[in-house]
Amino acid sequence: MSFINNKHIFTVFVMETPNPLLSWKQDLHKEYNIILFGETGSGKSTLINYLTNYFHNGTLENLKIAIPTKHYEATEGLQHPDDNVQDSSNGQTRACTEYNFKKEDTTFNFIDTPGLSDSRGAAQDDFNIQQIMGAAEQSGVLTAIILVINGTQTRATVTLRNTLCLLRSSIPDVFQQNLVVVLTNCSAVTVNFDLAHLEPWTIAGTNVFHMNNCAFSRPVSQWINNERMKKAMEHEWQCSMETIEELTQNLKQLGGKATEAFKQMRLKKNLIKSQLHGIFLEVKKIQDLQNELDFMKTTQQNISADIEKYSDYKRTRQVEYTELERSIFVRKFCVVCLTPCQDIPSSFSLPHTIPFYRDVTNLVEYIFRGKCHCGHTPFSHYDCKLQSVMKTGTVEEIVQDVKETYDDSVSKNKAIQSKIGSLDTDIAVLGYVFDLKEAEIRECYHELKKLCSQFNFVHEVQGIMDDMERDARTLASIAARTDAENRIRSIKQLVDTLSKAEMSD
Question: How do residues 231-243 score in pLDDT, each as one tens digit?
């Protein structure tokens, strides 16, 4: 399986799925699985080469090389994933590789791993740790975890502290009794490294070994003809071989442990990252909904202004009109025009009310005067006590286009109000989901702490937190950005709370 990252190709060595009866088989065939941990340049690959010489009967003059070095090419035909051995600025081992050595009826499977605190940064370290923990899990039963440390270091450097932090956060507590330390480039007399740097781990003295692995640091031609150097090299070689003999004997006494804890840690870590990523996506959804909500509220404000603006769709105006009122005088009234036609009132006389007299009078008027000035004949008139009175009144009318605009704005406001309510509900639901994920993260954290008391929660979540903050800075809406920052702050508070719990444990 290959991964491409930073223009480099990393090959992951995938071991076979462990058999459920593997522990029993290991006891029967005396098989031991050992994994090597250490920072870049600590000497893991050199240790593999020393082991190769021990098991393959190599000598100073006839070195057996499993992993090529700056001065020596590989001789054993073993698989090795190391890159350019001339470049010491980066870790050479790119993948986990298993080296199998047999002696009599015993098989030792040493798993070489990529170096930590790689110069390519934290992302590479995270990738390497995943490979290492995967290899440990795949082994099924693990006899020992060997921490390879440069014994010449007088203090814990930044890179070493980072390496130890990564290791403490990755090795389950159940394997603490199976921790073995190999201090390279030194002897028990010349060692500078203080084991106190490994605290809170406590390593039994019988599990600490020193190796001055200088045989591969220079070609044979540089010392073979120098008697003093040759004698020193032979002495160190002999001491190293004796140390490996003691190491292999010690490994037989440790007893293997199932790697289920590595699997559980992997699952819990992945779940935490999955939930954090889910929260990250939920925050983005909430931000999108908040943006839409802000837009809707702005639109609603504009529509509300239109409603207020066009609510006065009724108009009033003053009009003059004529109204008939009772009068004490008699006037000619046209039944066609429904108006009095004689402006000058006359006194009321009884003959005018007699139909015969009224008809004769109308006939005479028609003969001599013709039609009334209103255009109708006298026969269309009759005498009555009514008069026309001019009055002024207020008339209310509806301006139709304004009314239509008002009704349209009211309709839009109702629809937007419904949408705003729906968005508020959606945001509340996402907030509830956010809280559930946060609770599950908290639960996973506590379960991880039971598996690995030194689990570093901050390191696990820092990458995703950086992504969340970077994404929040791209928001154009003040409300959305504020909401995102508040939620990120909530996650940070959770991380801080759990981290403080780590420190108090």
Answer: 988 999 999 999 9
pLDDT of residue 19: 47
- Most confident of the ranges 165-179, 310-324, 378-392: 165-179
Query: 277 with 465: CB under 8 angstroms?
Result: no
Bridge-based pairing of strands 106-112 and 208-211 is unpaired
DSSP class of 174: G
Q: Name the token pair of 434.
A: 């956010």
Rounded to the nearest 10 degrees, what angle do helices 260-310 and 457-472 cross at? 20
Report which of 170, 451, 429 is spatially closest to residue 437, judged by C-alpha positions: 429
Q: What's the farthest any 2 CA atoms get from each other in the chain? A: 171
With tokens 């001339």, the residue in question is 86
Sign of the CA dihedral running 375, 380, 383, 385: negative
Report how far residue 330's alpha carbon sits from residue 352's, in angstroms, rounded to the nearest whole number. 10
Cβ atoms < 10 Å from Cβ of 170: 24
Over residues 272-299, the mean pLDDT reads: 77
The H or E element that residue 89 is part of is none
What dihedral do alpha carbons 431, 436, 437, 441 form, nearest 10°?
140
**Chain mean position to CA 300:** 32
Q: Give the range among 22-26, 74-78, 292-296, 392-396 with minimum mean pLDDT.
A: 22-26
Name the strand (E) or helix (H) holding 119.
none
- Cα angle, residue 48 at apex, residues 99 and 235 outer, rounded to 5°: 145
- pLDDT tens readout for residues 450-493: 898 888 777 777 777 777 777 777 766 676 677 777 777 777 77
Per the listing, tokens 């020992």 go with 144
